[in-house]
Write a structure and sequence with these properties.
By secondary structure, this protein is α/β, with parallel strands linked by helices. The chain folds into two domains: 261 residues, TIM Barrel (Alpha-Beta Barrel), CATH 3.20.20.70; 68 residues, Alpha-Beta Complex (Type Iii Antifreeze Protein Isoform Hplc 12). 30% of the residues lie in helices and 17% in strands. It has eleven helices and 14 strands. Strands 5-4-3-10-9-8-7-6 form an eight-stranded parallel sheet. Strands 1-2 form a two-stranded antiparallel sheet. Helix 1 runs parallel beside helix 4, helix 1 packs parallel to helix 10 and helix 6 runs parallel beside helix 7. The two termini are 59 Å apart.
Length: 349
């Protein structure tokens, strides 16, 4: 199985801590100053990458094409073209945002939504591409992205297993050699119940890929759990404060939460380890604080051991408790003081 993908100078894979992507999306609320503040906050939280979405309302839909009519949607009643006008990141901001991210030590790339977006992002020399779930069957876009030779991260939401397989074949046939797949549930927000993290190891095995999670649930618990199942990339939408509003703010992390995600996902990764039994080196000093058999009252040579004159207590300087029944009824060789650990050499056998 492929165990590593390299984006810029960062290796992502089975033997590396989770790679955390802060997705800005439309949470800049059409303010470049806010967008740059989001970059700074993501970097301060420890995110490894900053991601944008590259489209315009006209490259993704057209006026009058659709109005969202779903009472459970965050965007119920919104005309699609108007929604994307609110959410898009002006292309003239991209360079400033990317430069700021790089200055702060993060990688920076984007999700293109059409072929012209790829041409634009190539002019900015992005190190990788992200394919959004809603574009993962857009084969002309996949071929365009793959032809750049850059690593590709593709979300697998709203797709059948055959859709995913076809898209992977399109990418690989068009030149993609470094591919990461993200389990994704494309509802906003998603619930833990519809996240189905057990898909992650299956996805990795089925397609011989590094896998991760594009997580639209609230909080960080689902993402941390995903790491224990093999996710090595976690993508989360990010905002300064959900109360500030914005198209994606309701299911986005705030800076403190993003920092917790970075810390806790790495802890989860470090805790996975290997199958281990026996006493670890780190536990060797703790063995002393297991229990053993001690003399409970002063004893004279020849006295018989009974349940009254011995106890099982800490520390483990005497006989192990498993010998308790065996030594009942035996005699001691010499005088023993209360509080002495009982050893084999103290017994007449």
């Amino acid at each position: 199985m492929k165990t590593s993908v390299k984006i810029g100078n960062v290796s992502i894979g089975d033997n590396h801590p989770p790679f955390i992507i802060a997705e800005m999306s439309g949470n800049h609320n059409q303010s470049l100053d806010r967008a740059l503040a989001l970059v700074d906050a993501a970097a301060a939280a420890g995110a490894h990458a900053l991601k944008l979405q590259t489209y315009t309302a006209d490259t993704i839909t057209m006026k009058g094409a659709h109005t969202i009519e779903d009472k459970n949607s965050l965007w119920d009643g919104q005309e699609l073209h108007n929604l994307y006008k609110q959410a898009y990141t002006p292309w003239e901001w991209h360079k400033a945002i990317f430069d700021r991210a790089i200055e702060k030590g993060m990688l920076a790339f984007s999700s293109p939504f059409d072929e012209s977006s790829v041409d634009f992002l190539e002019s900015l020399n992005v190190p990788a591409y992200k394919i959004a779930s809603f574009e993962n069957t857009h084969h002309p876009l996949l071929r365009k992205v793959a032809a750049t030779g850059k690593p590709v991260i593709m979300s697998t939401g709203v797709s059948t297993i055959s859709d995913i397989d076809e898209s992977i074949r399109v990418l690989r046939d068009a030149g993609c050699t470094q591919l990461i797949l993200l389990k994704c549930t494309s509802t906003y927000p998603a619930t833990p119940e519809n996240t189905n993290l057990l898909t992650i190891p299956h996805l990795a095995q089925l397609h011989n890929c590094i896998v991760g999670l594009s997580d639209h649930t609230m909080g960080i618990g689902v993402s941390v759990a995903a790491v224990s199942l093999g996710a090595r990339v976690v993508e989360k939408h990010f905002t300064l404060r959900r109360a500030d509003g914005g198209v994606d703010s309701a299911f986005s992390l705030e800076p403190e939460e993003l920092k917790s995600l970075v810390v806790e996902s790495e802890r989860a990764f470090l805790a996975i380890g290997t199958v281990q039994y026996g006493i670890q080196k780190a536990e060797e000093k703790s063995v002393l604080y297991k229990r053993s058999i001690y003399v409970n009252m002063d004893m004279k040579a020849g006295d018989v051991i009974t349940e009254n004159n011995i106890r099982i207590i800490r520390p483990a300087l005497g006989l192990e408790p498993k010998f308790y029944d065996i030594i009942i009824g035996k005699k001691v060789k010499g005088d023993l003081k209360q509080g002495a650990p009982l050893r084999w050499e103290d017994l007449i056998t």
